[in-house]
Amino acid sequence: MSIRIVVDSISDIPAELATKFDISVMPLIVRFGETEYKDGVDLSSDEFYDRIENGEWPATSVPSVGEFANLYENLSVKSDGIISIHVSSKLSGTFNSAVQGAAHIDAKCPIEVIDSQQASMGIGMIALVAAKAIANGDDLKKVVGKVNDAVSKVQCFALLDTLEYLERGGRIGKGQALLGGLLNFKPILQLSNGEVFPFARPRSRTKGINKLLETAEEFAPLEAASVMYSTNAGETTPLSEGLTKLTSNNNSPVIARMGPGLGTHAGPGALGIALLPQ
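Given the sequence above, the corresponding structure tokens read:
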């Protein structure tokens, strides 16, 4: 018996880490027209970005209450507890769906559903905190305590190539997106208290990457870090090298690709960092 971890696909946690720590990933639904795909299951990131760069427009929807209920039912049979960590409830209905799913079953073990107040590897890093606590032999109460502590500390910043995808997805207004295009800046956004806020407006990609590194320095020393990208893996190198120097024991950050669930709103050319300060 053990404590099991569940996240949703907006966590962008790399498959090898999900496998290593036995983390179950609940996929969001991505739609192109009338066709639905499970994020990361029957729609790869390569195919997704190819399609949106060729002019197709996606939409997303949350996993159903029944899907969460079935997952929890199956996991609870051989678990001492389940900790389910999800994208900010202010950005998605996934957390609420998970809460209802847990309430719909007669679980064989306790289920703790956590609002990460984050997205992408902001969620993933919190899940890795849980995984390490479980590996250390902590009970569910201790694991939840460490997770909640991580929720209060994790910082997430994203450099976008355009605001168009956030505007189309209804996350910002049309005027804000138009202004960004007219001034030709590369917006950096911050996730704070579960919501997305403007953080900086560098006028080039290079300045944007430098700003991300400067921001990370303000939170150093770091217990852990991650670099996320949507389409340009090469841009992760300077960020990875810089974050390694800020992390205790010079631990390399986790490199993660933004999947379709997040890519619908971030778009091609997105680059981000997730930081867990000590």
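Residues 2-151 form a domain with the Rossmann fold fold (CATH 3.40.50.10170). Try to locate this feature in the token string yourself.
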